[in-house]
Amino acid sequence: MQKTNTITSIASPSTSVRRDWLTRLGSGLGAIACSTLLHKHASGAWYSQEGKQGPEGKQGSEGKLGLHHAPKAKHVIEIFCPGGLSHVDTWDYKPELERLHGTPFDAELGKQTFAGVAGTHAKSFWPFQQRGQSGLWISDLFPQLSRCADDLAFIHSMQSKSALHGPAMFMMNSGFIQPGFPSMGSWVTYALGSETDNLPEFVVLPDTRGLPPGGTINWGAGFLPAVHQGTVMQTGGSQEVIRDLFPARPINPDDEEKGMKLLQRWNRQHASNRESDSLLEARIASFELAGKLQLSAPEAVNIGNETAATQSRYGLEDPDIGPFGKQCLLARRLVERGVRFVQIYCGAENTSQKAIRPNWDSHEDIVRDHGYWGRILDTGASALLEDLKARGLLESTLVICTSEFGRQPFMQGSQKGRDHNPGAFTAWLAGGGARGGMSYGSSDAIGFKAAEKPTYCYDLHATALHLLGIDHERLTFYHNGIERRLTDVHGHVIHELIA
Amino acid sequence: MPALQGYKQLIVGIFTPNSSDGILPVIVPMKTPCGQICPHYLYTHAHRPETHRAEMNALTTKAPLTITMLPPSQQFFPTPNSRHPQRHPLLLPSISLCAWILLWNAVGFAQDESPDATVRDLERTARSIFRDHCLECHAQSVTEGGLRLDHREGLLSGGDSGKAIELGKSDASLLIARITASDSSRMPPNGKPLQVDQIEILRRFIDENAPWGDEPLADPRLNHWAWKNVPPKIDVPDIPPDTKATTPIDRFLVDAMNKQGITPLPHATREALIRRLNYDLLGTPPTPDEVDRFLNDDSYDAWERLVDQTLASPQYGERWARHWLDIAHYADTHGFERDQRRDHAWPYRDWVIDAFNSDLPFDTFLQHQIAGDVLQSPTDESTIASSFLAVGPWDFVGQIETPSPVIKRLARADDLDDIVTQVMTSVCGLTIHCARCHDHKLDPIRQSEYYSLTAIFSGVKRGDRVVSESQLQSIESKRQKIKTQKDQIDQELLQLTHGLSLADIVGGGNGFGTGKLGAGFDPNTGQVRAPSEKAGFLDGVVANRLNPTNSPWIDSVFVPNGYLPTGSADAPDTQVSNELKISTTGIVTTCIPPTDSKVWDAIRNGPVNSQFSTSLSDTECSPPGHSILALHANAGITFRLKHDELRKAFVNEQQPSDPPNPQSFVFTAKVGYFGQTPTAGADVHVLVDGNVVFKRLSLGRNDGLQDIQCELGPNNTFLTLIATDAGNGISHDQVCFIDASVAPLHAEKSDGKSSQDKKDRIDALRKNSDSLANDLKSLPEPKRVYGVKAETPTQTRRMHRGNPEDLREPVKPSSVSCVGPILSDIAILDEQSTDAQRRIALANWLTSAENPLPARVMVNRLWQHHFGKGLVATPSDFGLGGAMPSHPELLDWLAQQLQTSGWSIKRIHRMILLSDAYQRRSSGSNELAATTDNQNRLLWRQNPRRLDAESLRDAMLCVSGSLNRTMYGPGYRDFDYQEEYAPVYKHRVFENSDVFRRSIYRFVVRTTPHPFLTTLDCPNPATLTPVRNTTTTAIQSLATLNNAFVLQQSEQLENRIKREFGDNPEAQARHAIRLAFGRQTTDEEIASGAGLIQEAGLFQLCRILLNTNEFVYVD
């Protein structure tokens, strides 16, 4: 918890380093902010909204964590695998499928699937083994994650209300299959605010290949104030880290500083002629905060000072694994620096191309596509978990890994792939107060439908909020006649998942 | 604390998660109108406590209160089963929403145990059973079987089957027989039978002689203010003669202020007023000249004339259409996963602009939007208006693509929900969507009523349509006539000229029509592609590799790229290759420009997959009559000119004498760019034996069709066609050669008479054909719009818990009964009613004099956009969950003015704008008002406002002088578009003035919101947005400082200042400040501004000005 507006307690650049930074940034806006940083405490809340004070915890930089009860987690990192990760090839061991392998699936039931053609039962394309002390079953697609088995809490009975990528993505992110509702990251930051003034509270790291199905509204704030929408940080390297962080054309740092000084002087004059208007003050403060962001964001994404061992652990040098590894490494760095909610996408939007799919949507060839994406997820996610653990951050950081739905236990027609399965899939939690090495709920014998303790995203969300100290039924926002909730009118905290 | 008379008080403090100032106590009268503790009352006000703050203050000062803290979940209402027999579903959930509940001096909770009380309890309980289980069919609005169970008289007089009850004899009562029946006569007919204890209560009720007071059983929620009719006469308050109140509006407001002892602030300065007026009405700032004119206007009615003049500006419609489109959640794409374009959504947007500008009466405005396409004689305008129902999001995958009927039914249910929700929230302020899964929890709206409303729209499907069928038919019949003539001529021409069709060859044919349409060759492999093998981007492309084909006429195909990696470290990828092989015999060329080596689909006989269009310059180029040889850049194809074969081909096909043995041939074609980009599309090269014979660079859609004609001599062996992407990526670089053919060259010197006759004939035919082609071209395009495609309505059934797979009883098309009486034309609707009958009935119901909501809701919206906040703070929720009006009489008076003045919106604007209230200063000292009415509910001052995203963008364009004022038409697109399974939209900054139009003309993409505008709180069009959020964030400040658009406009402003005001820094500063702020400048400001210009340049000053609070806020 930061009160003194230093950038962060971990790996905090010294004052002189920060000054160097300024020089490199070449930005006078940074200079304004920096003088604030060095000489006095900035007053501002991160944002303000007309006619309404910010949620509790916004005032000042202190942030009261846990609205309703003592939290176990302070931060969330969510790894989202868009396209539909096949549970039966990965986390959800189904020996019955081995027996049924090659036999036709129920023709009538099979008609209800997205593509509408059910082929024969298909066992996992990767053998399963029991892992760790807890003996959780995980397939050989994830050799490295298997080493983390005792930290993982599986929910095997997840379901979705849609078999379509767009609506199912929206559902997993916002609890509704329609677009336009606030995402979980927005709700969490709306409730808890930020731990830092220097970085956005909710950061999204999209796959470098592009946006996921449904686009940017997956991390939209819906009807919540815009400040709670996810801020995209580009990790590809060629683009700016945060959109508009620096001027779109070069501006001399001295010019920038002079301009900013005049801007703020005029703004103060303007405000002084008006009865104390907090919005005018807030906007003046927002320019100072913008300056802080200019200092902090490039520092946060500069992985140059990570050790060679760390870089190698995240697989950064591998052209396929590297981009996701970098997203995972950045997530750790952002959480270290006080970012409340980080969402990482492991996969992009579908395209028409016939090569390896750009996400987990393996209709034609499970081995080709899950084989490709499995290596990526395996390396990045396991590195993240081990790194967080080694740094003592896993206890306070809830890691969630999910997809929008699973895949069918049968082949899609005569292809070598599997169709969408909203009836059952698996998500897992780790750290942040989740009980490692356990499984909750189950799918039926072949992984077609959730069987024991069927679970929707509502329960996953309710549990995550609970770990953050929030009662999901009491986190509400009035919109068009309804006090809206992330969990709509549903949701139960899954206490079994909590350590 | 003693209870206040007539009430028992329960005062609870709610500590909501988002209230920063701590505990806000709220009064909840124990005795609400229903005689019970009404949970929704608590629920509602707990979450917007400011509505009851005055009452609170009054109360808490009277007596100190004891405070008991209860844990949130603890039940503190008395015995809910007896007091709240059935219908208070909110009781527990709503309370648990509150973070803490403080119970202050809770008195009188113990139940009254007197005998009277027992009878009253019985009465109350029995009534609630009737209400919950019977009134859906047996009440004033619906009397199934002639029976009404909403008053005692109804029970006694009975219905078609006789008396419902025998007083004192439950065993002999038909009612009991029916509710306990085990056959199909059992009541209620749907759902579960009544429970044993409920039946027991009704028995007791009958045996006790049906204790039921005089009042009919009415849902107390029906007394809610918003459903009541607007009173026919509303008195404008009298105020003391010494109080200034210019207009009736002011008398309402001042009257309320007088009661609090608050004096309003005086009028703002004229500079502030004209700026406020311009932003409010037009969304743009006044020019310095306009400001001066107003400042120097000494006449007594200067303001009035300014208001009238501004209201008459066409920009008014552009501004106010924005507000309406927010609540219609208009966009130019579908949304969801496959967010495809709606290229014809814009006519609706234009219609809204026109409707506001022409002051279309508001009732017509609504009627046409609900049913304009199915009126007895629809006009183009009314048809376009009905697109209102269609402009929301729509899921292509769920509606069309998936073969799963389950998924389709869900998508359709969501679709109808979107339509019903949009109509009812925007027009009536009714949150009808809450009743999709269960009866509305706050408002008296039954779940069945929700489905009755979806039944009204069950014939409504969305899609592209022609605006007028008759226009389409008349154009089509003309087109058909011309086409028939032209086909005949073309047929003869073809026979006379008889070239070898290269497209046909690409389609695997012999050049004379045996090829398959749609077939082609993969430019990366030379493999044949069947028509069914449609592809997108090809994988594993190897540029500049020559791929021979198996066609006798096609030597090879290839993917060209002028960039070849040189492999040298200091200059990678920069060298243009010298020689690219284009034939298997080793012919090379150096003409090929650099490309990105990507290729889409195959070289086809016909359009490529997802080709933007097959027509260009109004010529439809698809067969019959024409052939298309399509290359999606980058691709190249080399044809083999086997002269012997060619000669044979023509000799065989023709009269032996004519001409006997042609030596030379001619290649003719028209080439065009059939992608979407208007300019700078693709490069096209035609080579003969490696020599360029035709070349067009940066061919775009605007360039139309280019003629190619080149002679192929006896020694020529290869003809090569190459299309490349002109370096702009290949997203839509679709190049097509139209009617590409090789034919014998009819040498002029060939002197036979027949040959001359033939040439004349060909010329004449060509002329005819061209003229007919021109006729075709000049036929107007039928007007199209994305709107309603009406179908025959299907049966609607209630969906249990909103689940489309759990259908229950059928429901008739109808509306909600809580708002005035259901008019006869809605009441007579049934399952057989047509789509037109249904929607017209609803439109009439909405705009009838008995429906008070549309007028109230609309005047409140007008008020909201003039004062920043509505008289009702929840403009799309006038129900029990919404806010109470701050000035109920004023709201009604305005609604009445709207209804009785021919529904003129502009008239209401005018009344508001001419009021003192509108013209007041937005800041100034008034300590009393600042303490007692900090939120300015009483409007003792005007509310300052920040420009919304679109106004800020428009203001920058205005001030910089680059605003393009072109009205109407397709939206400007400030993104790069890429056709994909899920289309890709990448927003960026453009330099051409096409995109400098007002933001209302933006092509709005749903899944990829505009990054700059979204940061500035522009809402996502997935959401119905009655009130925009105004947030202030660091990310916003970064955007306004650094975004390429702002820097571009800063530069434009810099150029403008230099152009208009020369080089003197003081003059530059004065005018820049004046343009930005619309006011005179001070010497100090000029000095500071000039100082910055000298130190950091004029550009920096311009950029700073566009970032100042004074620029982005309106006083």
The best one-word shape of chain A is globular
Biggest sheet architecture of chain B: 8 strands, antiparallel
Low-pLDDT segments of chain A: 1-65
Strand order of the largest sheet of chain A: 8-7-9-2-10-13-6-14
Number of strands of chain A: 18
Helix content of chain A: 25-40%
| Radius of gyration of chain B over all CA atoms, rounded | 37 Å
**Shape category of chain B:** globular
Report the count of strand segments of chain B: 31
**Beta-strand fraction estimate of chain B:** 5-15%
What structural keywords apply?
heterodimer; A: 499 residues; alpha/beta; three-stranded antiparallel β-sheet; 16% strand; disordered N terminus; B: 1115 residues; alpha+beta; eight-stranded antiparallel β-sheet; six-stranded antiparallel β-sheet
Strand-helix topology:
The complex is a heterodimer of chains A (499) and B (1115).
Chain A: H1 15-25, H2 28-39, E1 47-49, E2 75-80, H3 95-100, H4 107-110, E3 118-121, E4 128-131, E5 136-139, H5 143-146, E6 152-158, H6 165-174, H7 184-192, E7 202-205, E8 231-232, H8 253-272, H9 278-301, H10 308-313, H11 322-336, E9 341-345, H12 366-390, E10 397-402, E11 406-412, E12 418-421, E13 425-430, E14 438-440, E15 442-443, E16 450-452, H13 457-467, E17 476-479, E18 482-485
Parallel strand pairs in A: 2-9, 2-10, 6-14, 7-8, 7-9
Antiparallel strand pairs in A: 3-11, 4-5, 6-13, 10-13, 11-12, 15-16, 17-18
Chain B: E1 9-14, E2 24-29, H1 39-47, H2 53-60, E3 67-70, H3 80-83, H4 91-97, E4 101-104, H5 115-133, H6 152-157, H7 174-180, H8 196-207, H9 248-260, H10 270-281, H11 288-295, H12 302-311, H13 315-327, H14 346-357, H15 362-371, H16 380-385, H17 396-401, H18 405-428, H19 447-456, E5 460-466, H20 469-497, E6 500-501, H21 502-506, E7 520-521, E8 528-529, E9 547-548, E10 554-558, E11 580-581, E12 588-589, E13 603-605, E14 615-616, E15 619-620, E16 628-632, E17 635-640, H22 643-653, E18 665-673, E19 682-688, E20 691-699, E21 706-712, E22 718-724, E23 734-744, H23 753-778, E24 784-790, E25 796-799, E26 807-811, H24 824-827, H25 835-846, H26 853-867, H27 888-900, H28 905-913, H29 916-919, H30 927-932, E27 945-946, H31 949-960, E28 975-978, E29 984-987, H32 1011-1015, E30 1031-1033, H33 1034-1042, H34 1044-1061, H35 1065-1077, H36 1083-1096, H37 1098-1105, H38 1109-1112, E31 1113-1114
Antiparallel strand pairs in B: 1-2, 1-4, 3-4, 5-24, 6-23, 7-8, 7-13, 9-10, 10-17, 11-12, 13-16, 14-15, 16-23, 17-22, 18-21, 18-23, 19-20, 19-22, 25-26, 27-31, 28-29
